[in-house]
Design a protein that fits this description.
With about 450 residues, this protein is mainly β. It contains five helices and 32 strands. A hairpin with a 4-residue loop joins strand 6 and strand 7 (about 90). Bound molecules: copper (II) ion (CU).
């Protein structure tokens, strides 16, 4: 978004509008921080902890310093565990219905993070805090009164849109178009420090240094060559998800090619046969490499506007947005590699149409909700729909792509967020998968 766009409302009005949003969504707070199932016997504090999809309850527990035992039960339907990294303790992987007593020993004043270590579960909401002794007074929401909570929330909201280093997903220009018309792109995977939210740099893996990797866009009939280089400290490869390619270009080592070892290169080359809304990503140690940043939009041609919507005034696309969802790895809950308040706002004038390609590169589904305007799904996984389907909340599973049209209708700053609330808003304000669409006159 340009500075000119940002000045449309002015920073002051923008901040006020966002602060109003905070209040509007305030009613969604849960009260699961209430402590329960905690007892002291013979100087040992016992706390009941319940694991389920996707939470650890209670989300916050305040206890005195001293000997602590957690009675951990898996009340969910999947395997979970409970880990407190700062104390170096962890239960076994518990089957549904199974329990374990976790002895923490003599615990001193502090605030301890608890989480499920099964891949993706913490990012999906399985985190909680143990506030021991005066540790509860350090930053804990549990000790906040409502005025303090409002103030903390407003502080975060006023930071939006916060500036961070690095913007991913911009359109990539070919480095060369050869005499026979082949479009050549250079893609390099490397380990980078990526600023997910203000001041929070994480160890990420990135294509051409950014998360998401730059968008590759070509037309049907184009021939593409990708000179891929691996500068990371582990092997990788590229799979073209949702793109029709010959089998030996499918990027599934060791079947369709050898893994691209650190320092090595591989050339992907194929013809664009069909329109597509796809994504290029790793297919090697993917549960880490993809959530840590190895993904980028890959689009071929254009998705058409169905006649039904053309009759309703959706005559052309004024703005195109790729929205890549993520929830795991070092990057965590994010939209296009950034967490609120560092997510990018989008502007539309009344009557303008925005085409959004949603991509989910995370480990769990995300129901993306734009307060207004209503969305119309015009393509699923790059296949155009003859008749669009409405959706103010659109559930996008891992690997899925939805192409959605939104037309600026009512002026305002409209929140745009994942509706799994543990991905969007807590007692310390909005975070993670939250941004906004600003509709102006
Ligand atoms: Cu979500």
């Amino acid at each position: 978004m340009s500075r000119a766009d940002r000045s449309v409302l002015g920073w002051g009005a923008f901040a006020v509008a966002i602060a109003a949003l905070v209040l509007a969504i305030f009613g969604l707070q849960d009260d699961s921080s209430a402590s329960g199932g905690e007892s002291e016997a013979g100087g040992v504090t016992e706390v009941d902890v319940s694991l389920s999809e996707w939470q650890i309850g209670p989300i916050m527990t305040e206890i005195p310093a001293g000997e602590v035992v957690l009675n951990v039960t898996n009340d969910g339907t999947m395997v979970h565990n409970l880990s407190i990294p700062a104390l170096g303790v962890k239960t076994a992987d518990l089957q549904p219905g199974q329990s374990e007593q976790l002895e923490l020993g003599n615990v001193t004043d502090n605030q301890y993070d608890m989480l499920c270590e099964i891949a993706g579960h913490a990012a999906s909401g399985m985190t909680a805090q143990l506030m021991v002794g005066s540790g509860g007074d350090m930053t804990g929401a549990g000790s906040m009164d409502w005025q303090e909570m409002d103030r903390v929330m407003e502080d975060v909201a006023l930071e939006y849109p916060a500036k961070t280093e690095g913007i991913g997903g911009k359109l990539m220009e070919p480095t060369e178009v050869t005499a026979d018309g082949t479009k050549v792109f250079d893609v390099t995977a490397s380990n980078v420090q990526w600023e997910v939210e203000p001041g929070k740099f994480v160890d990420a893996m990135a294509y051409n240094g950014v998360v998401p990797g730059p968008e590759i866009h070509i037309e049907v009939g184009d021939r593409i060559r990708i000179n891929f280089k691996n500068e990371m400290d582990e092997s990788t490869d590229i799979h073209f998800h949702g793109i029709r390619v010959p089998n030996n270009m499918d990027g599934v080592d060791p079947y369709t090619q050898a893994a691209v070892a650190p320092g090595e290169s591989f050339v992907y080359e194929f013809d664009a046969l069909e329109p597509a809304v796809g994504i290029y990503h790793s297919h090697h140690n993917a549960q880490e490499q993809i959530p840590n940043g190895l993904f980028g939009a890959f689009t071929i041609g254009e998705m058409p506007i169905p006649e039904y919507l053309q009759d309703k005034g959706y005559t052309k696309v004024d703005k195109k947005v790729n929205m890549v969802l993520n929830d795991a790895g070092t990057i965590g809950l994010s939209l296009n590699g950034k967490s609120f308040p560092a997510t990018e706002p989008y502007t539309l004038r009344k009557g303008e149409v925005m085409m959004v390609n949603y991509f989910n590169e995370g480990l769990t589904a995300h129901p993306m909700h734009l307060h207004q305007p209503m969305g119309w799904i015009v393509a699923k996984d790059g296949q155009p729909l003859d008749f669009p389907m409405p959706g103010d909340t659109i559930n996008i599973a891992p690997g899925e792509r939805y192409t959605v049209l939104y037309k600026g209708t009512d002026v305002g700053v409209w929140a745009w967020h994942c509706h799994i609330l543990t991905h969007a808003e807590s007692s310390t304000g909005m975070f993670g998968m939250v941004t906004a669409v600003i509709v102006t006159q």
